[in-house]
């Protein structure tokens, strides 16, 4: 079938819903397609909070927030974009509150704020309370409120429709997407004046991750396959505190409320690595510190984890401010954080890189100003770039709402200026998708998806995680070559039309392989250490050669091209990062 709308948004997490709401309020006819029910989107898992310099608990300023974000990004974030985000954040939070987000309150009845890693007062002096939260269910509260508002405003939802390709005219204008309907197995065309990708992250590239099964980076992979670039893919965030072996997240809010990290000797080891902010250092630093403790034999009982100790914080704070993580810890590990420390280890958490965009979400083809007409991207799948080489905790939710809102407004304004007329559809826009699905369905011999996926996740975990070297990265590339061939031959048992999730698993495996390869190649290409990209064979940051963004293009099977774009510096000159 062909569906027709002014604006088609792919993804119903915080960023997609924010873009949908503002585009709709601006007068556009808006459809949201989502492979999951919107309320199952990963934004619902966000725990600790959303950063904004409201100053409800103590003095705070947007410029302090901007400085922390720039320093946290290891000076790779674009400072003009960061200024937009930090200046816009307080107003956007108030708007969310007015839409109905049930934020926790302080004693004065204002939105409560807590400490988070890398957020400081007065340009690095000491931790500041900047992260607004709804207990430790902030994403859940935001997602539900935005969904209510979208339904109220009559945004059209297509639930359990999975986008598999972009539709581009011969002149390079985006005029729609091809989507697979899970219920019926039908392939549909969405014809649009504008398409906005909001498909979230790719955590499932790694074995241990805080991300949901659906976080397979679809939007990024689709863009790469369309000949467009991805930016800064070497920067993958590992969150320091995943539940040991499971990777399920224990929010940084736990340390914000006073939790501390301990090694086997009972030492609060972060005092050695970050004397000023200690356990509230940024994530790249804390994850590296944990691995160093483990490598030097100070993991708990000589094993590959440390403790997060909340016992001194007390039952009341744990039960009221951190109820979700208390439940996770009891349910999954049988550990009561009121009485025992929680075993934790780093877990793959967030994609700093993604689809390059302007400050209004327009996708860029080759650096600032080179817009792909009709195509937008927002949220974790996009790279505007406010997080640079390392994102600060609570800065993703604010990125979603600030830039989701800006993209929504921009799409509505563009429609008003240019009119509603769409580019005509090219011939056979769904050909590539039909051929891909027919090929998978026709195979009779090969391995199951899960076996190949597990090998992919293992090699990425072993060779492309917190620490990397040329040797480990080359090992990963060798492995990925074989894995790609095996992925192209996987066999599925379910050949039916209805809810064929196995078929979509096979498609997603292809996306994961593509992304694993660009992450690894980009990591091999950047011969320095910066933020979350830690090359043990190039341990220093190298501003002379590498203070620039990477753009990677796929030019054919196994063929890639790199290009670069400058980092925008406005107020804060790069300095050595100390905490
Ligand atoms: C456990 C956890 C806790 C976190 N806590 C915080 C926090 O406290 N503060 C903070 O700032 N950040 C936090 N983050 C990060 C933050 O939650 C995410 O970066 C953010 O929610 C991503 O939102 P999004 O809108 O980009 O995408 P998501 O919320 O991931 O939504 C993606 C959407 O895209 C849809 N989709 C994907 N592929 C397709 C396709 N092919 N076709 C159709 N639809 C598709 C999905 O159905 C979904 O609706 C946390 C992350 C995790 C994993």
From TrEMBL:
InterPro entries in alphabetical order: FAD-dep_OxRdtase_2_FAD-bd (IPR003953), FAD/NAD-bd_sf (IPR036188), FRD_SDH_FAD_BS (IPR003952), Fum_R/Succ_DH_flav-like_C_sf (IPR037099), Fum_Rdtase/Succ_DH_flav-like_C (IPR015939), SdhA/FrdA/AprA (IPR030664), Succ_DH/fumarate_Rdtase_cat_sf (IPR027477), Succ_DH_flav_su_fwd (IPR011281)
Cofactor binding summary note: Flavinylated by SdhE, about 5% flavinylation occurs in the absence of SdhE.
Pathway annotation from the record: Carbohydrate metabolism; tricarboxylic acid cycle; fumarate from succinate (bacterial route): step 1/1
Pfam families, sorted: FAD_binding_2 (PF00890), Succ_DH_flav_C (PF02910)
Cofactor or coenzyme needed: FAD
Domain Fumarate reductase/succinate dehydrogenase flavoprotein-like C-terminal: 453-579
GO cellular component: plasma membrane
Tele-8alpha-FAD histidine sites (modified residues): 42
Protein EC: 1.3.5.1
Designated name of the protein: Succinate dehydrogenase flavoprotein subunit
Organism listed in the record: Rhodothermus marinus (strain ATCC 43812 / DSM 4252 / R-10)
Upper lineage: Bacteria, Pseudomonadati, Rhodothermota, Rhodothermia, Rhodothermales
């Amino acid at each position: 079938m062909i569906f027709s709308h002014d604006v088609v948004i792919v993804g119903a997490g915080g960023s997609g819903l924010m873009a949908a709401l503002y585009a709709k309020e601006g007068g556009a006819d808006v459809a949201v397609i989502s492979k999951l029910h919107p309320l199952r989107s990963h934004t619902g898992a966000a725990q600790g909070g959303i950063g904004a310099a409201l100053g409800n608990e103590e003095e705070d300023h947007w410029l302090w927030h901007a400085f922390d974000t720039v320093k946290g990004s290891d000076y790779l974030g674009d400072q003009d974009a960061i200024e937009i985000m930090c200046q816009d954040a307080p107003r956007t939070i108030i708007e969310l509150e007015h839409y109905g987000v049930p934020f926790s309150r302080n004693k004065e009845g204002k939105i409560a704020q807590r400490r988070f890693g890398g957020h400081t007062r007065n340009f690095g002096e000491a931790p500041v309370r900047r992260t607004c939260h709804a207990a430790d269910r902030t994403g859940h509260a935001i997602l539900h409120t935005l969904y209510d508002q979208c339904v109220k405003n009559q945004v059209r939802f297509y639930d359990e429709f999975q986008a598999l390709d972009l539709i581009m005219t011969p002149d390079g204008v985006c005029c729609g997407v091809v989507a697979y309907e899970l219920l019926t197995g039908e392939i549909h065309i969405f014809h649009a004046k504008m398409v906005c990708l909001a498909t979230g992250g790719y955590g499932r590239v790694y074995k241990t991750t805080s991300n949901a099964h659906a976080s397979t980076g679809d939007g990024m992979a689709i863009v790469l396959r369309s000949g467009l670039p991805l930016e800064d893919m070497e920067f993958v965030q590992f969150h320091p505190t995943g539940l040991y072996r499971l990777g399920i997240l224990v929010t940084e809010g736990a340390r914000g409320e006073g939790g501390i990290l301990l090694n086997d000797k009972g030492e609060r080891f972060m005092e050695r690595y970050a004397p000023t902010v200690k356990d509230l250092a940024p994530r790249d630093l804390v994850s590296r510190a944990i691995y160093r403790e483990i490598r030097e034999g100070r993991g708990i009982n000589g094993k590959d984890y440390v403790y997060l100790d909340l016992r001194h914080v007390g039952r009341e704070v744990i039960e009221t401010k951190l109820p979700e993580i208390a439940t996770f810890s009891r349910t999954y590990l049988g550990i009561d954080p009121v009485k025992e420390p929680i075993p934790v280890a780093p877990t793959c958490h967030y994609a700093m890189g993604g689809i390059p965009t302007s400050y209004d979400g327009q996708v860029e083809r080759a650096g600032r100003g080179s817009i792909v007409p009709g195509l937008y991207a927002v949220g974790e799948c996009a790279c505007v770039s406010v997080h640079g080489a390392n994102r600060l905790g609570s800065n993703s939710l604010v990125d979603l709402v600030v830039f989701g809102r800006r993209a929504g407004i921009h799409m509505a304004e563009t429609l008003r200026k240019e009119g509603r007329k769409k580019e005509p559809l090219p011939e056979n826009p769904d050909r590539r998708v039909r051929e891909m699905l027919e090929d998978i369905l026709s195979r009779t011999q090969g391995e199951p998806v899960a076996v190949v996926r597990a090998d992919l996740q293992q090699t990425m975990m072993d060779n492309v995680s917190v620490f990397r070297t040329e040797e480990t990265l080359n090992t990963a590339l060798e492995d990925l070559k074989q894995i790609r061939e095996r992925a192209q031959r996987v066999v599925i048992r379910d050949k039916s039309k209805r809810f064929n999730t196995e078929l979509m698993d096979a498609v997603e495996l292809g996306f994961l392989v593509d992304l694993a390869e660009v992450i690894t190649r980009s990591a091999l290409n950047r011969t320095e250490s910066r933020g979350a990209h830690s090359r043990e064979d190039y341990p220093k940051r190298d501003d002379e050669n590498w203070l620039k963004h990477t753009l990677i293009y796929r030019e054919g099977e196994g063929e890639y091209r790199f290009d670069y774009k400058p980092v925008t510096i406005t107020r804060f000159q790069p300095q050595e990062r100390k905490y």
